[in-house]
Structures are given as structure tokens and as C-alpha cells.
Amino acid sequence: MALPACVPDIAAERPMTQAPTAPSDALKLKFCGLHFASPIVLLSGCVGFGEEYTRIEGFSNRDAGAVVLKGTTLAARLGNPPHRVYETPSGMLNAIGLQNPGTQHVIERILPELDFSETRFIANVSGSTVEEYAEVTRLFDQSPIDAIEINISCPNVKEGGVAFGNYPDMSAQVVEACRRVTGKPLITKLSPNQTDIRENARRCIEAGTDALSVINTVMGMAIDARTRKPVIGNIQGGLSGPAIKPIALLKVHQVHDVARKHGIPIIGQGGITSATDAVEFLIAGASAVGVGTALFYDPMACKRINAGIDQYLHEHGFSSVTELTGTLHV
């Protein structure tokens, strides 16, 4: 996937003579009481369980403030039939189907292998019932994980498969159930595929979420004109990448109107590939920014984005990245 030619990367506008070896102090922030070395959060499903990209020479989890682990359900899942990933213009469709080894395996076999001195690690909790969400959250609460992200875009099997995240009542029920079983920071990942994301955000805040991730993928499909069949084995999948950035920016701005009144921080995400993108999300109201699809073709994106944000802060008179959040002039 090529970067949009009309959106330059701040760091590329004035090439730096030497990239910094670690994020600068200006990029540090506190998110739900956790110390982040950078506003960058590596998104769920894009870096495995936090160990996948560390095998790449030059990549370091230290370049990110936090890493969100792959979506985890109570029992192991094989996921959807192929094809599960498909490149689209300025984006990517995926329908992995929450393939994962199950919660106990993640806690007992994967978490002990992670270096918690490098960055913060956030579990991503998924489920098909409210009870499953609560049980997975309870188990992670007893683990060394730093925080828990609730993926409410999963289908509710008791309600005919409708997504929990598309209805404020169901979203709030999941958050309430998870809140009862953990004292760790809860981050609720909001879906753009709903009527009123502001109302959903408000209900999740009232139910006890500590932060919000905005947004999850936008539902879409691709068709093979030769065979007249869907390309994705699941027929539909989640669209990510630069194609959804304008949607994500608007949703972050809308949710920020609600979240700032309650002191709730936002992880803004959706098509961030450059420092320019990241800065725009911060201005729209995000406290941190999620990077995902960009890593598939540029594993070193975090170093480049960190450098560009730092350069922007210096050139515009900001001493800290936290000063940039919600500075949109309207």
C-alpha cells in the first residue's frame, strides 16, 4: 500500500541527520495512570502477542508507549476460513475471526516471555457473551498485564449475532460486567458501525470505562469480478488503513466532546501512517495514537512517527505531547 501522495510526512519534510534511539522526553505521557514513553500504541492483531515484530532487526517495543495483544477469547479459536486478508485501495480488509490460543495459554505461556520493562502491555478481551467477556477480564486481572482493552465489536450469540458495540445498552452491559471483576485500567474500543458514537461513548463512561479506543475497523467487502465471488472467506471484513482516516478523525472529534467532560482519554486510530496523521489525531482530541496497518509494510514506522511528532512539538512551541490534545480550532 502506498502512502497518499497528498499527505506528506512531517519527518520527511526536513530529513533528520540521525534518528533518535529512543522517544524524547517530550513524547512521554501518563495514560490511565500508566507511564507511556511515546503516544504510539501498537494495535491489537497487528503485532501478534507483542513478540512478533521483535524478531525484525531494528524494531523495538520501546518505540511504543504500549502494545495491545491479539484479541483473546476464553477458549482457543481457529478463526475464519481463507482468504482472511485482502489489500484494497489505500487500505486492507481483514476477517481473521479472532484466531487465538485461549486466555489461559496467553497468561501461562505468552505473558512470561514478554519484557515488561520495554513498554506497557494491554490485553484485548473478546467474547460472544457478556459472561465470557467478564471471565476473560477476571483472568487477565490476575496476570501481570498492565491494562485491558474490551473489543465490543464481537457478535452477541444470544441476540442473533448483532455486535455488542453497535448498541449502547449492550456496550454498557459488557463494560459493567468487566468493571466488576478488575481494578486494572479498562479501555473500551468503539465501533464506527453504529448510529451515534457519542451516545455509546457516554454509556461506556457511565458504566466504568477508564479510556476509549476510537475507532475499530469499518465493515466492508471485496468481490472477485472473474468468479463473481467474495474475496474474503467470511464475505465481509474490517477495513483499515489510510482509506478510513477521515472517518476516524471525525469520530475522535465527536467522542472527545463527551470524553473530555469526564477526563477520559482516547486512543485515536484509523489510517495513521505518518507523523502528520498522528498529530491530526492528537489535535482532534486523542491523548495517544494507534498504529496498525502501517506496520505491515513499514515495521520501522514508529521511529519515523516519533521523530516527526517530536519535531512538530519543537517547531510549534509545545513542550509536551499532552499539550497538543484537543487543540482543534473550530
Please write out the topology.
Blueprint: H1 10-13, E1 29-31, E2 34-36, E3 40-42, E4 66-72, E5 85-88, E6 91-94, H2 103-110, E7 120-125, H3 130-141, E8 147-151, H4 168-180, E9 186-190, H5 197-207, E10 211-214, E11 218-221, E12 223-224, E13 229-230, E14 236-240, H6 245-259, E15 266-269, H7 275-284, E16 288-291, H8 301-315
Parallel strand pairs: 3-4, 3-16, 4-7, 7-8, 8-9, 9-10, 10-15, 15-16
Antiparallel strand pairs: 1-2, 5-6, 6-14, 11-14, 12-13
Helix pairs in contact: 3-4, 4-5, 5-6, 6-7, 7-8
What tags apply to this protein structure?
single chain, 330 residues, alpha/beta, TIM Barrel, 8-stranded parallel beta barrel, 4-stranded antiparallel beta sheet, disordered N terminus
Describe what you observe in this structure.
The protein is 27% helix and 20% strand. It is α/β, with parallel strands linked by helices and 330 residues long. It has one domain: TIM Barrel, CATH 3.20.20.70. α7 links the parallel β15 (266-269) and β16. The longest helix has 15 residues, at 245-259. The model is unreliable at 1-20 (pLDDT under 50).
Summary of the model, kept short:
The chain is of the alpha/beta class and 330 residues long. The chain has a single domain, classed as Aldolase class I (TIM Barrel, Alpha-Beta Barrel). It has eight helices and 16 strands.
